[in-house]
Design goal:
315 residues; homotetramer; Four Helix Bundle (Hemerythrin (Met), subunit A); 74% helix; mainly alpha; 14 helices; Helix Hairpins
Chain lengths: 315, 315, 315, 315
Amino acid sequence: MKNLRQRTALLLEGNGEYRQIGHIIDIFLITLIMVNVIAIVLESVVTLAHHYKQAFLILEIGSVSIFAVEYLLRFWSCVDRVEYKSLECSDFKRRLKYLISPLAIIDLLAILPTLLMMFITFDLRFLRVFRLLRIFKLTRYSRAMQLLLQSFREESGSLIAAFFIMAVVLILASCGIYLIEHDVQPDKFGSIPAAMWWAMATLTTVGYGDVVPVTPLGRIFGGVITLLSMGMVAIPTGLLASSFSEQLRKRRVLFCDAVHECLHDGKLDDDQLEHLEHLRCKLGLSKQEANKAIKSQLSARTKNLYCRHCGERQD
Amino acid sequence: MKNLRQRTALLLEGNGEYRQIGHIIDIFLITLIMVNVIAIVLESVVTLAHHYKQAFLILEIGSVSIFAVEYLLRFWSCVDRVEYKSLECSDFKRRLKYLISPLAIIDLLAILPTLLMMFITFDLRFLRVFRLLRIFKLTRYSRAMQLLLQSFREESGSLIAAFFIMAVVLILASCGIYLIEHDVQPDKFGSIPAAMWWAMATLTTVGYGDVVPVTPLGRIFGGVITLLSMGMVAIPTGLLASSFSEQLRKRRVLFCDAVHECLHDGKLDDDQLEHLEHLRCKLGLSKQEANKAIKSQLSARTKNLYCRHCGERQD
Amino acid sequence: MKNLRQRTALLLEGNGEYRQIGHIIDIFLITLIMVNVIAIVLESVVTLAHHYKQAFLILEIGSVSIFAVEYLLRFWSCVDRVEYKSLECSDFKRRLKYLISPLAIIDLLAILPTLLMMFITFDLRFLRVFRLLRIFKLTRYSRAMQLLLQSFREESGSLIAAFFIMAVVLILASCGIYLIEHDVQPDKFGSIPAAMWWAMATLTTVGYGDVVPVTPLGRIFGGVITLLSMGMVAIPTGLLASSFSEQLRKRRVLFCDAVHECLHDGKLDDDQLEHLEHLRCKLGLSKQEANKAIKSQLSARTKNLYCRHCGERQD
Amino acid sequence: MKNLRQRTALLLEGNGEYRQIGHIIDIFLITLIMVNVIAIVLESVVTLAHHYKQAFLILEIGSVSIFAVEYLLRFWSCVDRVEYKSLECSDFKRRLKYLISPLAIIDLLAILPTLLMMFITFDLRFLRVFRLLRIFKLTRYSRAMQLLLQSFREESGSLIAAFFIMAVVLILASCGIYLIEHDVQPDKFGSIPAAMWWAMATLTTVGYGDVVPVTPLGRIFGGVITLLSMGMVAIPTGLLASSFSEQLRKRRVLFCDAVHECLHDGKLDDDQLEHLEHLRCKLGLSKQEANKAIKSQLSARTKNLYCRHCGERQD
């Protein structure tokens, strides 16, 4: 028999017998976060802020209350969560560990600005905008985004190198255009940092056009930089493209390995099938692909199972 | 012996003995749709609309009549189509099922605005533009586009995640530039939604340049956002690139599997060759590639299965 | 013993014993074409055209004479070229076949405008610019470009589909912005074709900024279109990226097949090594990669060469 | 026992027992280079240059002294470095070889402008900017960047071909827009080189918008060029994406080969493990991937080599 705290933990994680109701709570919270973000964005429009002052206030107080209750419930029940239960330490340490986990900090940031605004009164607008940080609460719910972020993390070395190349080209481009256009347009290319605005807009192919070289030499130099911009854009794109391909391959291999392991005794029972289905969802593979992997592993087993010479099983 | 309805169904699908004449009908309809779209676009130019009023009207009436006839014929003969024939339900249900299929709805949308314009008379121009929806009738004819759209569908999870990351960065960027430039350019960055126009143009590297930050801090922040824009553009591109690669691989594997299956008895008869040729077209593989796959599967079977000298199986 | 025509053919193709001298002629012609293109571009600057009139004229006459001689020599010797020699038809037909080959047409286009200018006198400037077409003469010399163009050709189906999607989005975008901004900016969004200029610049992320929506609704719609632009740019990029990967793989496979075939008798003689080296260059593989392929095929042979059961060679 | 010069070489290379202290020196130098670059960029702002004249001067003198000492130490100790030790030539030749190595030239360029400024007095500002070249000193420290640059080098053939296609399209685009818009906007499209500025900004999707076609024909032509720009951007991106994928694959294969070789005697000793770990770092593979490769190679050896029951070899 589970106590209230354990049930709360299961409910908030959406595991076990509370999967359905946990799913509903998730959807409610996701909707609330989105409504909040839209409201905060619209509140910055002066006329809207004036007309619907009451509505915005009620929404804000209501949302923050719900988020606060969610935060407290999560904090209270965190010691019963699967990943903290297995830690061998006191409940206090577990709670502390939870408090400094990224998701808990995001949850805190979602309610902190409003709490501060209630007690401190000096600069309201500045804090108001920080309420937008509650958009990060959505990260909890998107698996595909976590996979995307993982790609970024795995390619971080290459991306930093790409960023470094970008920085070098950026500095040399600003320096070059500063030397060439400095005297003709002192208001636009008056210093290297000022010239960087042009170089940045050009190298990323944004190209605002508010600052452009006008001398023939500046335009030739600018033309070379626009050509380089294609390379600059190509590097991160290429890195991510190859990283995504790599991840797809890795996930397929991971799934095949899992199938291989499950097939150790030559057949798949229901538990193993459910486990594989769960893994399939987690890795984002299509059903068709998964079936193919299982089938090919099965046929591979029946073919290579016995020694060609003595007929004995090989494992 | 086939009756008229069955023949109409075959004609409109371009299958069986009517492949050639069905192909001609297809080309006629594609041309008609394109001419229609070009006419509607040109009709929005006031001078042209004035000069060639008669011609546009005749083209419109003629086209809509043809499309209406096509729609009625398709509706009438749909119960004899291959995919609906195999459904175990009454003809009425089949017709209903056809009516709510995407292609039937597109066909209806192609004629509806003009039909409405004949009976309702209040806002003509608005409806006139909706006639452009008949461009979607072209989806029926492009296999490569269907394959492209399939890529989008398969990557939909990741693309939505990418879109979500984009939305978060967009909101934070607009919010940041709003805080920084709000006081200096109240007409351009007067609210977060207004600042989003700049953020959107920057993060997608469109960079109109009609709204740009002017303060040093705003330009530093803007520079950071232009850098982020490269990442924003790289994510969908990378996802699609890896998805297209994956699809190419999958199609190749599918074809090899089909060849493997056909070769179960050690040889290919004419039926199987036609089946493989059909599959090759459907999967969009080159002839060279297909021949290679067949050859390698053939040689794998004949070469490695038995020792040529002692007749023992080799695997 | 070869006659003069055969030697000319070998010289112009750079084959056989004339490889070295043919290479020098190639470099001379490439340089001449480039100098020509630069000269034609610079000649459009009025002051330069005035000052260096004499020099431009001499260069033009000299170049055209050389190109004309080259064209005549190629035409004269074409019947002795390897690819035309093997055709079973009369010399006249071979010459005709050569005349309508793309490279011969390009060679003709390179000299035609100047020849016309000598005899016809009405609009000189128009023809002058067409002399730039001689830049296409360079296609003869670049293998990497031919490989690139092959990628385009192989993906042509998908690229046309991408282009078609682009066209549909373009028409819907122009139509939408025309409906929204037509009344506010009649000079910029006065008709759908006029609105296409904005839609084209936005969907390709060029973003000139000379025409932008100004109404709130127009900016929301414009924002959606900028988001779509990322997808539009991602499709061709993704297609080409996956196509290039595919080509790399195919070339590797082609090379491995060639190695496999050469190793039929279990060893590589000098002729085969030269043949493989030639193929390696043609396919643009690195030396390291080629060596690896050869080594792995060699070891595969020695391992699987004999039947496990009777010890006899397997092929 | 090592002498001072040998120790200096080890220290500067960060090898052997000086790995830790060498690492600290590296970090100090990297920081110094970055501070220098930032200072030079900020010095171009007139007000800052005026206010902090003293600080900039001290930083410059201090940095150049340190870089000069580093340069001299490297030059002195270069004959004891691993890669020069193995050369069979006199110390003088080794030093000469070091002097003309790219990294030594970069080190020299980092101190040369300031040294020149001390002795020559005519144009200070010009030389001052060249001090920025010391940013290239950072190349020594980034392995990921060296891998990126290798990708560029390996794809150089294709990239040059892409660049050539770009040049052809660029010239034809400028020529076309020159013909069309020359008479209407003589100040912007007065000559082909002037028209190139627009063509360059359009084909790279930068799209400044300072120069745009205004005639209907010019806009239609411009629209076609914007469409081509997507292809232009797609080529280098696709090339790099496929090149990065290829490199990932090659590195994986290289590592697997190394594991295979190490496992020749059926087990891994400590030396081999360290060797593999070193290789893993050099190739930038993840630990997880490396372990997988080792495990699969191990199991391939032990599982399939002999039948567990009858002891017969299986391949």
